[in-house]
Write a structure and sequence with these properties.
The protein is mainly β. It has strands at residues 3-7, 10-13, 18-25, 33-39, 46-51, 59-60, 68-73, 78-83, 92-100, 103-106, 110-115. Strands 2, 4, 5, 6, 9, 10 and 11 form a 7-stranded mixed sheet that branches. A 4-stranded antiparallel sheet has the order 1-3-8-7, with no helix packed on it. A hairpin with a 6-residue loop joins strand 4 (33-39) and strand 5. The radius of gyration is 13 Å and the shape is globular. The termini are far apart.
């Protein structure tokens, strides 16, 4: 069964950096469009960043644009979210997502907490 597993979350001070990873298994990774979302209690899941299977120009949510970078390594079946200049409002559970026609996969989420 295809799976996504996030790692790299944790506690960081405002202004700091974190790199999240999402490792995929049991799927043809290079065929998938990839994305990161985040969610806080009581709010809808928010789009953070996306990259297509052809590694075209990434897309970023307005709230993180200029502070995060999404990338992928097809050889490792892994993609990343580099987050810099973190703010307390970036505190959330971050989910990775892999999508192809007919299939939409989610990881279990990793907690990111930014202290002020």
């Amino acid at each position: 069964q295809a799976q996504l597993a996030e790692s790299g979350g944790g506690l960081v001070q405002a202004g700091g950096s974190l790199r999240l990873s999402c490792e995929a298994s049991k799927l043809t990774f290079s065929l998938y469009d990839l994305a990161w979302y985040r969610q806080t209690p009581g709010k809808e899941r928010e789009f953070v960043a996306a990259i297509t299977r052809s590694s075209g120009t990434p897309n970023y949510g307005d709230s993180v644009k200029g502070r995060v970078t999404i990338s992928r390594d097809n050889a490792k079946s892994t993609f990343y979210l580099q987050m810099n200049s973190l703010k307390p409002e970036d505190t959330a559970i971050y989910y990775c997502n892999a999508r192809i026609v007919g299939r939409n996969l989610w990881g279990q989420g990793t907690q990111v907490t930014v202290s002020s």
